[in-house]
Amino acid sequence: MLLDTETAMARKTSKINVVPQAILEAASNLFIQRGYEGTTMQDIAKELDISRSALYYYYKNKEEILVSLTEGLTLAAEQLASQVVEKGKAPEEALREIVYQHAKLILYRPVQFRVVDQALGSLPEKQRKIAETARRIVLQRFTEVIQRGIDEGRFRLVNARVTAFSLIGMCNWTAWWFKSAGAKSAEEIAEMLADLSLHALERGEVKKVGKAGLDETLRILEENLSQLKEVIDTQR
Model confidence over 172-182: pLDDT tens digits? Predict the structure, then answer.
């Protein structure tokens, strides 16, 4: 009863003292430093220099904070990837955009992503399934873009699903090494990753005639035939 009274009183001042995004950022930092299990609501309130009642106005426990963090990232990633596919752009443009959007999402919230990645098992079952479904959809959207490029002869013959895993992993890994005060901005790094992804999948053209050009052509043909055999074998 006392807690309810304090919470009601805090409603008049909590919006001035703190906003949900500040709570999520402070909680994320503490979850990384102390671990999810080792962090309390009191720790989060102290980090923000607010009363626990002001914190409870927005979140009744740290589980709700983790749910908010997870949904904010996984559902946003799903929406961004789906929007790219729905635009129906050429495979090259779609690949570049889907990588850029996903990378930028992670680069803007690296600490929060690390928390979500490490504490997924601490979510209630319902929210965990929602997050896992969102992740599967992101993988599916990346795979669709890559496969369409292969089918249209624009990308090399690769395993689309494995390649999608690789590109998503490359984007996600930035959460562990990106520094906002570094030489490159989040947007610049996202652009670089998008370009790298496109260059890795585009079918190269042999521009010189001669032994070097012939060798490269044969190498590409052998690689494509080997990968085509793998695709055929898996479909038997």
Answer: 999 999 998 88
Q: In one letter, which amino acid is 200? A: A
Q: Residues 6 or more apart from 28 whose CB is under 8 A from it?
A: 69, 111, 112, 114, 115
What does the pLDDT look like over 221-234, one tens digit per residue? 566 556 555 644 55
Q: Which residues on adjacent β-strands are paired with residue 155?
A: 202
Cα separation, 147 vs 131, in Å, equals: 24
Q: Which domains does the chain have, with CATH numbers?
A: 2-60 (1.10.10.60), 63-203 (1.10.357.10), 205-236 (no CATH)
Task: Kindly list the distances between the CA atom of residue 114 and the CA atoms of 30, 67, 107, in Å, as whole numbers in the listed order.
Answer: 12, 14, 11
Q: What is the CA radius of gyration of the chain?
A: 23
Largest CA distance in the chain: 85
User: At which residue do the structure tokens 């590109």 appear?
Assistant: 167
CB 127 within 8 A of CB 65: no
